[in-house]
Structures are given as structure tokens and as C-alpha cells.
């Protein structure tokens, strides 16, 4: 019997106008990827190097597109149904959890399949160029992409069963995708070639990332290879890990698709102030800032929208912020301690590189989740007309909202600074570098906030706003790194430098003089780019907010 | 905020809408709406979906601009005095406008602060509105975990925070259970007694008819009827429905004969044998109805009741909402079939 969910999931999605735009955009992007590196020279190299370069770039581009665009579909699939009440109806049918899961998975796979099919003309062009094997290159890459699709889809569906809002689902899914595909590459960079067990662990860990496998398949070598020959079967390990993870995610999701999703008591609303004095004292001692205390009324001279944003954000309350700051400070000092004790092995620049990378990754990860829903969440929840009806001006509302994000980001950044202070204390020569890094981080925070807020303001709903913001920010941060991966071949120094100019991560890493980035002069070009982009984003945000606030 | 702040005067109408029209391209959402409201009045705005109720409300609260016409609340124009309108009006949209992770008290505190109420005054005011709306017990509950009925009450509390003179409530009873509906009804009546002017839209017409002084019926953007519930009932039918209660079912035929003779021969009579009753519609004045009763008694028909049935709001609404039968008289309850001019219920 045909699964009715497949048709609904797939056909409904394909009927949307934005899907048509997506298809056209993808086709154009894939074509562009090939055109960029298409040989203009009438002579052909018999070695096929040129076509391999084209194919490599195409492969990275295709993988990036999947990682950026696909997760939003499974991530919102179940939570949206749950919130709109249709999941309860579905669970009440004889379909059963397995068929519901299967229907939703096939729907997402259908969309992903469409994306891959759209890439086939570009892939055929690469193949026609010669120099790449149908089985060992083309098919292998597509098999890898198919596994990535399967893993992403099941992960997204699993997150969707836990999330209570669509934007939370999107945030968590993109966070996990970023972690599994990029952050897992990090440890190998530092532990490769060492004799410790950490080298083996990090070697396996990097196999979780599809980038490592793709690099291995396309013959680029290991990420951050330092001249050591890797004997690991990275693609083989990826296949194994991917299949195991897919099976785990699937089983987990199926086990969640039952009454337990709805079978939750409403929050009782217990407040410490109403409990005994002993309990109150104990909670104050344990929590420092008791999460269950009765909050005070909003004070004078404080923007109420800012307070509201902090209060209604899941991790926006003071006790959560204190925890985040504590973690950041401890991590920062921990890394500095490693720098002090292990400078012989790694060097201060390497440790500084890790710190910069972690800080920027943190900014890129949390900023869209904070800023993209500033306007769209209000529009989605029906809160915008209520805000409009208050005495506050549009600019005041906007300022309160931006302030809530800015303060959070500044707190996080400040919490990560102690490490730099220790580094400067040990090596005063680093002062200028650290100052520049701090400027880079501040500029990145401002840029990420304004870009996400501006993009988010264009949407009516939070989930697509969050997804679009993540996609834009990851594209700015990720796409130039794809070009950087192809430094020397196929891209020359100037091409890589020009591409990296828009990348805040690369700029910060070049300032800290991390190996691989120290040869590029990205400052002040990057600051100009971030400054102008931030100004444009702010303008878009103000204009769009004013537009939606005008009476109809 | 005192009543004077808004330039209110109980002598003058509080809400004045004149020739209000709103067009979206070729579509006319609101067509030449004119009505007024006095202080302390409860106006029920009713109409089918897409009738223009929400458009009218949005214009009144400044969320939409009229294509032509004017709307004033107190001395403030809804288009040019948007800032004053915000202080004069408490608006509760049909969607609650919930925020995650906020307790009820924090939610009210936020809106109070957004209205610029000083902290000390706000704390007291929150207690006051919670008391008025009966939401004090849920002050530490998270807003998103409240039931729909509770959320509606919190919504009303929110609209009261800045002590507006006019409350505009879009579907406040929508989705509420009977108990919650009764509580909401009592709350609205209580607010009117406190001197608030209320404009309420609802689909639950029986509820509206119990609380509203006046009713405006909108269909296709046009005001079809405006007046008290009784006036609307009269407007629906120039004829009245009269019920004659008899002592036995056998007398129905004889009574029908007398009624036909006295009114008109082809008059539609609706018989309800189970109730031993006859109902008919007539435009006769009181005096002639008295003659009819005298004639019935004189003919030996034993009448236990002779009364006019009220046309309820639901019937009036249906009468105006049905485009094909705009003024067809409503059928009294109990009539299930009509044969040869006499219906047997």
C-alpha cells in the first residue's frame, strides 16, 4: 500500500514557489561551479588534472549545498505537524510510527534526490571533460552524497521529535550538522602524528565528517595535513559510521513517534519565593541566581523589549548566561594553560588559532539563533501587532531587540578574553595581534548579528528565517574556505586571498598568523567588507521593520 | 489614566465611524461603514467570515489605513493620532500573541512597561487587572502552558493594563468551553459596568445577545443592520411570530380556521401537535391581535397562552448573512415540516 505521507510531504513541498526558485538557483549555482574552473585554453592536459580540479570544486560545492539547504526540511517536518496539531491526527490513524517515519523520510529523500538530479548536468560536464572515472570518482562521490543525505535526514527528523518550536529544531539541527561535518576535523589537525591514543580517536572522529571522505575520494588529501601520509581508509570508515548513525537516528526517531510526544504535564509554575525560607536559601546557594525566583518588575530606563527578549529566550535568563560565561572563561583559560605547557609542541599561534576558531565558530553558531527570529518570531506568534499597539516606537523596539543579542554576544566574547590576556602577559609581542583579533571578533559579532537580523526580518516564520540566516552566514564563512582548500591548485594566491577577504574566520586566523593563513593579507580589507555589509544589513533591517509596522 | 486624558466625554459618542471604506485592489473589504458608540456601551460586531469585522477593528486600532472615511475614538483620529489611540484603546486580537518561557506576571509586566507605566504603579496595576480578570492564581504559570480559556483571560488583563477607555476584543470567546464562556461573558459585563466601552466580535451569537447593548451586522463589508438586539429582530421581519398555546391537539384545526379567517387565507401556520400549539407570522397591530384572541375564545377554543416570540440574534444574523434570502422571516423553533400551509412539528 502506498504511503500517503510521501505524496503529501513531497508534492506539497514541490508546489511551493520558493521550491521552484530553489531549483533554478541550484541549477545556476552548479553550472557556475563548473564554469568558474572550465578550461578556456584550447589545449587539453592529457593527465586530466584540470578536469579533476573542476570536479573537486564541484564536489565540495555540492556537499556544501546539501549541508546548508537540506537540514531545514527534516528538522521542521515533525515539529511543525506537532504544533499545528496534525501529528496527533496522524498518530491516531492506523499508519503507525514506522510508516509515518518512513513517509517523512522518503519525502525528504525525494527533495534531496531532486537536488542531486539537478547537479547531474554539471557532473556530466565534468565527466565529459575527461580525466575522471565514472565508477571511482563520479559514482563514489554521489554514493557519499547519498549517505550524507540519509544521515542528515534522519538526524533532522530525530531533532524534530524533541524540539518544541520549529526554529529551535532548525538551530539544533544546523548546530549538530556543523559539529559533525566541520568541528570533528579539528582535533586531527592537532593530534595527527602523535603517539597518544588521542591520535587514533581524532583520526576516527574526523571520519564522521563528509568533508574528510570527499577530500580523500577526490585526492585532495587530509584536512590540515602536515606532510604526514595517512593510511586510514577514511571513506570506508565514513560509510560505516554514517550507516550506523543513520540506523541509530532512525530507530530513535521511530521510538519517539508515539503518545509520549504529547504525554507531558504542563509546567506547574513553582516559584522559590513561595517555598520555605530554608528552601529559598538552599536554592540561592546552589544556583547563585535561582532560576525559579520571582523576577522583578522591569526597571526604569531599561528597554522592556530587551528584557522580554532575555526572559523569553530559552537560555536567556541570567542563570544560563552565567553558566555560558563560566564555560567560556574556563575553556579559554584551559586552552591558554595548554599553550603555556605545550608551546614547544604546538606554539602560541596554534593555540591562538584554536581559540579564534572556537570563538568564531561559537559566534557563527549562536548568532543566527539569537538574531534571525527577532522580527519573524513576533510576526509568527502574533506578537507584532501587540508591540505595535504599545507606546514604543519601531526604532525603540528594534533597539531593544538588537541590544539583547549584542549584550549576549559581548558577554560571551568577554568571557573568552582571559585566555588572550594570559597570552599577552606571557608574550607581550602578541599585543598587536590580540588587539586585531579582538577587533575581528567584534566586527564578526556585529556583522553576524545584523546580517541574521536583516535576513530574518524578511520572513514571516522563524524556521525559514533561521535556516536562511544560517545558510547565508555559513556561506560567507564556508565558501571562501572551499577556495582556500584548493589553494595552489587550482586556485592561485591572489584568487584565494580575494575569496578570503569576505571571510571573518580567515581574517582572524590570518591575524593570529595560523599556519595556512599567515601568507594572506586580509586586514583591513575584511574589516571594510564587514563594516559595509553590516551597514547595509542595518539599513535593510530598519527599512523592513518600518515597512511591516506601517498600517496596511 | 483618567477618562479626561483621552478627551472622553460621556455626553459625546466615544467611537465615531463615518463612511469608512477599505479596498485592497479591486476587493472592497469594508464599504461605507458608519456607526457610533457611547461610553459604557457593548457593541457586538457580527458577520460571517470575510465580512470586514477584523478590517474595521484594524482601522480603529491603527493597524490599517482606510481608503476613505474617518474613524475617531474620543477626540483622537485613528489615522492621524495613532499615538493617542494606543492609550485610548485596549486591543485583543483573535490570536493571543504568546511568548515562550515567560510567566503571566512577567508577560503583563512587559506590556505594562512597553506602555510606559512607571514601575511602582505598574506592579499595583498588574495586581488590579489580575484581580479583575480572575487571573491572580496563574501569575507564576508560563504563558504558553495556559489553556486557551486562561490565555483569553490573560489577554483581557493585558488590554486593561493601561486603563484604556475602549476595549476592542476580536473573538474573545472563540474556542472557549461553556464554563469559560460564561466567565468571559461575566467579565465583559463587569468591565462595561466599570465604564469601559467594548466592541466585541464573536461567532457565538447567543453569547453576544446576552451581553451586547447594540449589535452591528456586517456582510460583504457592508453594514446590514445596527441597533439593539430587539431592534435588529424587528428589522429582520416586519412581521411578528405569534404563538397560540391550546389545551388540546384537537383544537388546532378549529383555531387554524379562525386565524385564517381573521388574518389572511393563505397565511402559513405552523402546528406543533406535541405542544398543542400553533404559530403564525403577522403584521397585524396590537389591537387586531386582541380581536383575534377574543374571536378565538368566542369560538370556544380554549387558549392557555397567546404571545409574541422573540426573534433571536442567530436568526437575525442568518437572515442577513444569507445572500439569496436576505429578508426571509426566521422560522420559529419546533417547526420541522409544513404541509398545506400548516406545519406539523
> In the residues of chain A, how many domains can be counted?
3
Q: Count the E strands of chain B.
A: 16
Number of helices of chain B: 11
What oligomeric arrangement do these chains adopt? heterodimer
Approximate shape of chain B: elongated
CATH H-level homologous superfamily name of the largest domain in chain B:
P-loop containing nucleotide triphosphate hydrolases
Task: Calculate the mean pLDDT score of chain B and round it.
Answer: 80
Shape label of chain A = globular
Into which percent range does the helicity of residues of chain B fall? 25-40%
Q: Indicate the structural class of chain B.
A: alpha/beta
% residues in beta strands of chain A: under 5%
> Which two chains share the most extensive interface?
A-B, 38 and 43 residues
Helix content of chain A: over 70%
CATH class assignment of the largest domain in chain B = Alpha Beta
Are there runs of chain A of 5+ residues with pLDDT below 50, and where? none
